[in-house]
Amino acid sequence: MRNNMTKCSILKKILFVFILSFFSLKSTAQDVESLKKGVLEAMGGKKNYDKTRYIQWTFFGNQSLIWDKQKSRVRIDFLKENSVYILNLNDKTGKILKKGEVQTHPDSLNKFLEDARRIWINHSYWLVMPWKLDDPGVSLKYMGETKTQDGNDAEYLEMTFKEVGVTPDNKYWIYFDKNSHLISQWSHFSKYTDEKPRFTMPWKDYKPYGKILLSGDRGERKLTDIAVYNKVDEKVFEDFKKPEL
């Protein structure tokens, strides 16, 4: 009889732990969805982002980019050398001007077009990461409540990747301001196994561009010349000489 009672007690404990784990996982999933929904609404809504046609910005004073979201094209002007990369992101075709020389050899052309793709992936992530939380291969884990470096209340998610992007081993902590629901800070880890971040930077200076909000202030680093257009001259994606926007 005593053995039966002991077994019954053990089974009850196991069931209790299972139930607690189930509701904890369910609650965590709800927290993740709530933060994602909140930030997209605060930034203008996914529909308005999807309808946004052209986005322009300058990355850390080094490259100026114009991205045609709807046709998946990007133009990258290097500000410190005479180089222009024009790339169709769908079929990976395009044209390259590298330090004043037009690249025509297939090997060189393909190399620089791949460089252009990597630059666009990295530079656009610094600008539109909040819109990419639902991307395929992105895993999000609710980490709880905390304070940012500025001392503001926030909740944060851990973001990792499953075989996507050019740096799939990276990890981020994404901080959501509890009042504005906007992303207010991020921490970057070179590897998902790292315990300490490589850097932690703010997301500040949100402003309306078209019908969405974008932020360009990363503390010591800045994304500048941010603009949204409904229409640009097609020569932007055809000629190395950049037309006036």
> Could you give the distance between the termini?
85 Å
Mean pLDDT: 90
Largest sheet, in brief, is:
9 strands, antiparallel
Integer-rounded radius of gyration: 23 Å
Helical coverage, percent range: 25-40%
Could you give the order of strands across the largest sheet? 6-5-4-3-2-1-14-13-12
Oligomer: single chain
The coarse silhouette is: globular
Element order, helices and strands?
A: HHEEEEEEHEEEEEEEE
Classify the fold: give the CATH topology. outer membrane lipoprotein receptor (LolB), chain A
% residues in beta strands: 35-45%
What would CATH call the architecture? Clam
Number of helices in the DSSP assignment: 3
The SS-based structural class is: alpha+beta
Topology:
Blueprint: H1 2-42, H2 46-51, E1 54-59, E2 63-68, E3 73-78, E4 83-88, E5 93-98, E6 101-102, H3 106-128, E7 138-147, E8 153-161, E9 171-177, E10 183-189, E11 199-202, E12 204-209, E13 212-218, E14 221-229
Antiparallel strand pairs: 1-2, 1-14, 2-3, 3-4, 4-5, 5-6, 7-8, 8-9, 9-10, 10-11, 12-13, 13-14
What structural keywords apply?
outer membrane lipoprotein receptor (LolB), chain A; single chain; globular; 245 residues; alpha+beta; 5-stranded antiparallel beta sheet
Structural write-up:
The strands form 2 sheets. This protein has a 9-stranded antiparallel β-sheet with strand order 6-5-4-3-2-1-14-13-12, with helices on one face. The protein contains 3 helices and 14 strands. The chain has 245 residues and is of the alpha+beta class. A hairpin with a 5-residue loop joins strand 7 and strand 8 (153-161). 29% of the residues lie in helices and 37% in strands. Mean pLDDT is 90; it is low at 15-27. 20% of the residues are buried. It has one domain: outer membrane lipoprotein receptor (LolB), chain A (Clam).
